[in-house]
Amino acid sequence: MKGRIALVLVAAALMVFAGYAALYIAPDEKTMHAIQRIFYFHVPSAICAFIAFFVVFIANFAYLGTRQPKWDWLGVAGAEVGVVCSTIVLITGPIWAHPVWGIWWTWDARLTSTFVLWLLYTAYLLLRGFLDDPQRKAIFSAVFGIFAFLDVPLVYFSNRLWRTQHPQPVILGGSNSGLDPTMGKVLLISFVAALFIVAILIADRYRLERLRAEFEELRYRAESRSAEAAAKTARNVTEARVE
Amino acid sequence: MTTSRAAAILLAKELRLEFRTRELLTTTVIFALVVVVLFSFAFEPTAAESRRYGPGLLWIAFLFAGSLMLNPSFAREQSNETLDALRMAPVSPFAILLGKMCANFVFLAVAEAILVPVFAVLYNVSFSGVAGRLILVLALGTLGLVITGTVFSAISAHARMRELLLPLLLLPILTPLLIGSVEATASLLADQPELDRTWVAFLAGFDIVFLTASWLLCDYLLEE
User: Fold this and answer.
1) How would you class B129 by CB atoms within 10 Å of its CB: exposed for 0-12, middle for 13-18, buried for 19 or more?
2) Closest CA to A112 of A61, A76, A160
3) Ramachandran class of A174: left when φ > 0, alpha when ψ lies in -120 to 50, beta otherwise
């Protein structure tokens, strides 16, 4: 518990510092000015969403291999946090795009892929809600999760082939690209802060799911015990009557 | 029994069932027709416009019709618990899945064979001269739809609200397939029709990826 509080404090401090750095330390961008600063929030969220979905994929695979419920809990935790992160990406993106591109949204490869990703993992969470049997829920959502993950490169590739408008990779984009060193450092801090928060959220959601599973198990046992007791009383009553 | 033989037996059973009721095919064709007719109100169906919107319209109609049609594939095995009987048969789970996929492919192909000429007449689009290449695109697109759709039909059959859930699971997964099929079909409607090989290869890749995935994961889909 103490470790967790320390972790939360570190994350909070990092987040405050990252916010300060993004607003005051990072240099002004030549053409976009203030609105460019959303970049320090948008890009880390996007990377975190991909990390979270990758965690889901690993968890899905591990669940099918081992059948240990803990992997299923990790899967749902990762999917929820990933959906939250990609929601942030999908909201901050248009806020930036409107003044810079002049439009809120365009059906570009990365935008479309992120949107489809969001749809796929929302479907994953919905599917879990509609399956009652816990074991079946775990197996089927793992299978769907693997299908969804396999679809991601196909979605990206097909859109890429089709049309693209998103800024080309600035950081590893080629000879003429590159980020101001201070901007790079601020981005790194924002990314570490976001990573801390995502890790805490996934851990908390995992714990919640574990508690829920334990609770279900206990309730099931209590119900079967009370049913047994009721049957016993009924038997005793009948026996007493017979006597 | 070999997988292909077991799949063939299951395919024959599905076809016999459909031949006796004709429920699935009638509803699918009529539904797709309704979509096609509705689109004529949404867009001005002149020859030039149709050539632009036609491929997208056609594939949207197939996708919607397919996601409706795939629902009963596994769901109807539940009413009499016949899925348990299938599971007990001494065949691999992949044979069951493959048989279902083949049957769904046949149903959807028949529906498309009826729909494409009707569409060509209603929207003043000519497919003459490209029929062979069109069939290739239709086959690859339908195959991808049927592979993923049959797997998800096995999943959604056990869920509540399954009729709503299946399109929700299936349609987002099919976005790359939709782009590929529409672009390949559009390349056949151009003034100088030439099949876009990149998209054909992409569609074939989509089919291979998901067929392999369903082969690897079918044990989990059909276990009790």
Assistant:
1) exposed
2) A160
3) left
The predicted model gives A91-96 an average pLDDT of: 91
Q: What percent of chain A has pLDDT over 70?
A: 93
CA distance A23 to B41: 51
Task: Let me know: does A180 contact A145? Beta carbons within 8 Å.
Answer: no
Burial of A170 (0-12, 13-18, 19+ CB in 10 A): middle
Q: What is the pLDDT of residues B179-191, one digit of tens each?
A: 999 999 988 888 7
Burial class (CB in 10 A: 0-12, 13-18, 19+), B22: exposed
CA A204 to each of CA A44, A198, A200, B6: distance values in angstroms, whole numbers, following the listed order:
20, 10, 6, 47
Tell me the nearest-neighbour CA distance from B62 into chain A, angstroms: 19
- Which H or E run contains A63? helix A39-66
Q: Is the dihedral of CA B85, B68, B110, B205 positive or negative?
A: negative
Interface probe with B: pick from A66, A133, A143, most Cβ of B within 10 Å: A143
CB-based contact, A136 to chain B, within 8 Å: yes
Q: C-alpha A14: how far from its chain's center?
A: 20
User: CB of B222 within 8 Å of any CB in chain A?
Assistant: no
Residue range A175-183: mean pLDDT, rounded? 69
CA distance A158 to chain B (A): 6
SS3 category, B124: coil
Interface test with A, best of B152, B164, B173 (most A CBs within 10 A): B173
Question: Is A150 in contact with B183 (Cβ distance < 8 A)?
Answer: no
What letter represents residue A92's amino acid? Answer: T
Determine if the pTM surpasses 0.90.
Answer: no
Model confidence at A243, pLDDT cuts 50, 70, 90, reads low
Among partner residues A120, A147, A157, which is closest to B213 by beta-carbon distance?
A147
**Residue A66 touches partner B, C-beta closer than 8 Å:** no
